[in-house]
Amino acid sequence: MDKQIFGIGGDFFPPQWKRPLLREHLLTLSDKSRPKVCYVGSATGDNAQNITTFYQEFGRHNTETSHLSLYSPPQKDIRSFVMKHDIIYVGGGSTKNLMALWNEWGFGEIMREAWEAGIILSGTSAGSICWFDDCITDSIPGGLTALTCTGLLKGSNSTHYSGHPDRPSTYRRLIASGEVSNGIATDDNCAIHYIGDELHEIVTQDPDCRAYRVERDGNSYKEMPLDARYLG
Fold this sequence. Notes:
The protein is α/β, with parallel strands linked by helices. The chain contains 7 helices and 14 strands. The protein has an 8-stranded mixed beta sheet. The chain has a 6-stranded mixed beta sheet with strand order 7-6-8-9-12-13, sandwiched between helices. The two termini are 28 Å apart.
């Protein structure tokens, strides 16, 4: 089966009156008529409200849902629990804390095995940038900084690109200096879909949102907007 990663820039859970186009699209990536979706809330310390929101929102679709807490694992064999699912959805929050916890548990390697077995890896914000070599994050005091991530995908990722004025300027500066590797930035309401190691498609639930390729150019940077498919 193909390895797939679906990273969302932000706003994966839109207001109830708005059709959740990105979520609907994510579910179509599975070949199961009723995919088993597991929520991982490490980035917010398994916040109870976020877990409830996950069950409520994914309960609107034909899915079988569960969640995995590394603070209170559902069973001793975490790997076996993960491998029972079709889609893993990682919530946003503190990427620094997520990576610290995953490294302690060896969870990044479990995610790599799941990915290679054809389980779709997905997530929003921290749940998107965590799959890359590195990223910029606001989870360390003192402003946006570089952070090493799982390295399943080469390069870097920045989310909430148009929604936070400091994201573009910081991402460009850190790429120009070489502190962060060349990468891709995503607006809220936009998602990047990787098949294998390559970017397959960019999709949005807002026609005004998109993604950008940002690369080092000498001592500066170059930024290129990328074509995105509106799902509406």
